[in-house]
């Protein structure tokens, strides 16, 4: 069990027959950010909190926070 709060599955079918991934166009920069961050080793980049603590409430995963930060920086 991981100690981070994970993101939701974007390919999970909703109550409607649509998928959340269908609402994002193929040329949207969020796809590039998602692929770019997923390929990086966050601990090798110097993110010291990429390894979760053993106690306390789980925090948000650093990769998700970095994706949100980069997307916000672009906009």
Q: How would you portray this structure in words?
A:
By secondary structure, the chain is mostly helical. It has one domain. The protein has a two-stranded parallel ribbon. Helix 1 runs antiparallel to helix 2. The radius of gyration is 15 Å and the shape is globular. The N and C termini lie far apart (34 Å).
Count of discrete structural domains: 1
Side-by-side strand order of the widest sheet? 1-2
Largest sheet at a glance?
Answer: 2 strands, parallel
**Element pattern in H and E:** EHEH
Total strand count, please?
A: 2
Radius of gyration: 15 Å
Helix content range: 25-40%
The unreliable regions are: none
Averaged pLDDT, please?
79
How far apart the termini lie comes to: 34 Å
| Tally of alpha and pi helices | 2
Helix/strand-derived class? Answer: mainly alpha
Q: DSSP strand (E) fraction?
A: 5-15%
Shape: globular
Short description:
With 75 residues, the chain is mostly helical.
Descriptive labels:
single chain, 75 residues, mainly alpha, two-stranded parallel sheet
Topology summary:
Layout: E1 4-5, H1 29-38, E2 59-60, H2 62-74
Parallel strand pairs: 1-2
Helix pairs in contact: 1-2
């Amino acid at each position: 069990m991981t100690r981070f709060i994970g993101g939701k599955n974007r390919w999970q079918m909703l109550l409607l027959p649509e998928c959340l991934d269908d609402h994002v166009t193929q040329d949207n920069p969020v796809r590039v950010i998602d692929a770019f961050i997923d390929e990086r080793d966050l601990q090798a980049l110097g993110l010291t909190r990429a390894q979760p603590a053993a106690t306390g409430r789980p925090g948000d995963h650093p990769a998700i926070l970095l994706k949100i930060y980069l997307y916000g920086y672009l906009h």
